[in-house]
Amino acid sequence: MGRKINCIVEPILEFTSLSDFHEGLSKVEQDGRYGFIDKTGSVIIPLEYDKAYNFNMGNASVKQNSNWGFISSSNDVVIPFIFEDAKSFDAELALVKKDGKWGYIDSKGDVAIPCVYSRAKWFREGLAAVSIGGNMFYPGKCGYIDRAGNVVLDLKTSYLTAGDFANGLAHVVKEVRHFGGGLTGASRSSLKHSAWACIDKTGKLVTSFYDYIADFSEGIAQFENNERVGYLDETGTIVLPLRYNDGLSFKNGITWVKEGDKWGCINTSGDLLIPYIYDRVYDFIEGLSTVKKDGKYGCVDMNNDVVVPIIYDDINRFHDGLASARLGDKWGYIDTSGSEVVPFIYDFVSYSFSEGVSWVIKDDKYGLLGY
To answer: Shortest CA distance to 4 belongs to which of 333, 365, 319, 316?
Structure first.
C-alpha cells in the first residue's frame, strides 16, 4: 500500500521562493526579503533579512544592513551582525568573513581560527582546505589546517586548489585549463579538463594527474583523460581503462557507463550487465535508477526490470521511497512501485520531501504536503 500523503497547507502561500525544511523551519523569500516558516506555513521569523541560510545547530546566518550575524529559531540575535559574510555552522564551527578574509568562529561567536585566509572550506576528517593570497581568477596556494588552526599540510608550492578529505584522500588541482570564469566558488565540474590528482593526509600523491577525477564511491572513482572515462581505486590503480564516453559512480558494485550516445550498466570487472539502450540515466538509489528511453522516463532495478513504467516526462531521484515526477506539464509524486501517491495537479513540486514535508506550487502560490 502506498504511503499516505496529507495536504498540510493548500496552495495559498505567496512567496517568491521556499526552501526545504531544516530543523523544522523553511527559508522563504518575498520581494528580496527573507524569513522562515514552520511546517504549518506560519511565519515564525519575519521576512526582514537581506539574505539567509538554512538553520543548522539551532541557528541560522542572516544578512541585515550589509552585515551578517546569527539568529536563533526564536529570532534572537545570538552572534552580532559584524561579518561581511557568514556560512552555516558545521561541526560546531562556522565560516565567517571579516576585512576581506575568511576564518572560523565557535557557537558563542568567539574566534576559533582568525580571519586570515582568502578562501576556506568546512572541516572534513579533522582538516580544512584553505588558501592564502590570490583573487577571483587565481585562488592562491592551498594547504590544510586542523581545528586548532595549525598548518598540517603546506601545499603552497604545488597546487592551485584543494578539496575536502574523504576516506583519507583529497582532490588537488595543479593546473587549470579551458576555464573562462573565476575560480572563487567554481564548481568541481567546471574545472574539468584541468590537472587533477588525489593526495593522502601526508600530502603524498596517490594518483597520477588526469583531466578530472570524481569523488570516490565504494573505493572507486571515475577519472577522465582526453575525453575518455575510466575508473581507478584509492591506491591510484586503474581498475577499468579509459574506454567510455561518460560514467557515473559505483553503487552496490555496479555503475552506468556511456558508449556512443547510449548508457549501459557494468560491474567492477567491466562486465556488461544492462545493454547500452538508455538515453539518460541516474545513479541507483534505494535499488532503483531513473532512466530515459525514447523521450520518456521510468525506473529500472539492478536486473533491468522495469519497476516504474517508462511513461513519464520527468522523474527525479527517489528519496525515502518517494520521487517527484511529471506528466505533461503537471507534477506529482510516485513511490517505488510506480503508484501515484500525490496526484499530478501541481505546476511544480520540491525535488523530494525534507523532514517529512514537501512544498508544491499551483497558480503561483505555495502549499505544503506531509506524511
So the answer is: 333
